[in-house]
Amino acid sequence: MPTISVAKRSSPHSGSHAPQHAHFTTERINTTTAVVTVHGDLDASNAGLLTDYALKALTRNTKLVLDLSDVAFFGAACFTTLHTLNVRCAGADAEWVVVPSKAVTRVLRICDPGSGLTTSPDVASALSRKSDQRPLQLVENT
Hints:
α1 (47-58) packs parallel to α2. Helix content is 29%, strand content 25%. Mean pLDDT is 82; it is low at 1-19 and 133-139.
C-alpha cells in the first residue's frame, strides 16, 4: 500500500490557529539600491503584503535585492509575488535579485524550473553582481 507523507508547519503556538507572521525591512544601500529583507513565514495570507512592500522600495530604486534567506516557510502561492516583481522590475528597467532560503529554493525548483528568476547565494554577492543580462523588456502586442 502506498504511503503519503504530509509536511506540516510547526507553530510557536502549539495547538492554536495563530497566523504565521513575516517581518519586512528595507535597507537603502545607496540612492539606487535597496535590500528588502524578510524574516518568518510567507504564505498566501501575507504574500500580497510582501508584493506591496517590495514595490514601494522599487519606486525609488533601480536595483532591488529581495533577501529571503531567513524565510522558513515559502508557500507555492508566494511564487506569484516573485513573478509580479519580475514583471514590474522589467517594466521599470530595474535589476532585481532574489536571495533564497532552502524553503524558497524548493518552490523555485518546481515553479521556475528554467531559472528565469535571477538568484544569488547571499546579499553580498547580489550587491556586487554586475548586470550581465538586460532585464526583459515589455512589448506591446499589436
